[in-house]
Amino acid sequence: MPNRLIADRERFAALHPERRILIGGRDWGYVEAGDSGPALLLIPGTLGRGDIFWQPIEALKDRARIVAVTFPASGGVIEWVGDLAELCSRLGHDRVTVLGSSLGGYVAQYFAAAHPHLAERLIAANTLHSVADVGSRPPYSSDLDHAPIEEIRAGFGRGLGAWRERHPEQTELIDLLMAEVEGRIPEPELRTRLNALKRGPELPPLDLPCDRIATIEAADDPLIPQPMRDAVRARLKPSVAYCFEWGGHFPYVVRPELYVSLLEEQLGLPVTGDGWDNGEWRSR
Predict the structure, then answer these.
(1) Is the per-residue pLDDT at 122 higher than 70?
(2) pLDDT score of 15
(3) Closest CA to 102 of 28, 25, 174, 42
(4) Where is the AB hydrolase-1 domain (predicted)?
């Protein structure tokens, strides 16, 4: 059977092709949508290009100015944060709500700390608070510079295969992510993303009021265990913490309507869906 998620993402990509921009000698990709409303900067994780946020982008593009980025094939967290500040300047965004997921959530936290004048709000999603122990865990424990790319991709495949066995209802998501692993994210970009956390800096202090910080997590996230989720909230002290009862590491893909409703809340937009009264929790 055709994969509905892949087909829908490909439809979106045809309508909103990724643009390229050179910043700091690094070749970034980005998708831009919307020309009015609050500015929203979306930063993906390791297994996603900017268009992995296609469902929230389509839902919000008539009410917000959205930029979703794709990491370049060089640099790391510190360089990327400087580049993203320059990108905001070039696109005319003086203030942005920055949402990052996973690797992107770490970058978003660093961005908000380094450029508090640009960060209207920080939304740290399905992410971590420190890179202190990252290098001891697969796939980061591999020689990311020299290990055969097939070996690295196979490692992702094993992890995704285990998730498929536990959650066969998310087979379409796994197929979409495998397409990213198997070449939609080119080898240099994939290695660079992994090294960005393995060699990444610890997060600097964050000078942002708590009422401008939110976190997102999922109770069944296979990559961000409960102690790490707790540590993210303890560090950021968010005014709002959203928790999906289920959604894994990619709730914005598998539960887009609920994800859009929390973005509407954070952007100050009217909430169009059912909101957070479905057994999920939102703490303040």
Answers:
(1) yes
(2) 96
(3) 42
(4) 40-260
The whole domain housing 247 covers 4-130+208-283
Q: CA geometry: angle at 220 spanning 201 and 81, to 5°?
A: 25
The answer to whether residue 134 scores a pLDDT higher than 90 is no
Q: Determine the pLDDT at residue 214.
A: 98
Residue 284 pLDDT exceeds 70: no
Q: Indicate which CATH number applies to the domain containing 21.
A: 3.40.50.1820
Q: What angle do CA 102, 141, 99 make, to 5 degrees?
A: 10
Q: Is residue 12 within 8 Å of 69, Cβ to Cβ?
A: no
pTM for the full predicted model: 0.97
Classify residue 221: in a domain, yes or no.
yes
Q: How many structural domains comprise the chain?
A: 1
Whole-number Å distance between alpha carbons of 103 and 108: 9
Q: 148 lies in a domain?
A: no
Kindly give the residue spans of alpha helices, DSSP state H, lying in the chain: 4-15, 54-60, 77-91, 103-114, 149-166, 171-179, 187-198, 226-236, 251-254, 256-267
Radius of gyration of the chain (CA): 17
Q: What's the rounded Cα separation, in Å, for the pair 265 and 165?
A: 34
Neighbours of 55 (CB within 10 A): 20
The tens digit of pLDDT for each residue in 253-276 reads 999 999 999 999 999 999 987 777
152 in any annotated domain:
no
Q: Are 126 and 104 in contact (CB under 8 A)?
A: no
Lowest mean pLDDT among 101-105, 156-160, 178-182, 274-278: 274-278
Q: Which two tokens stand for residue 31?
A: 């998708």
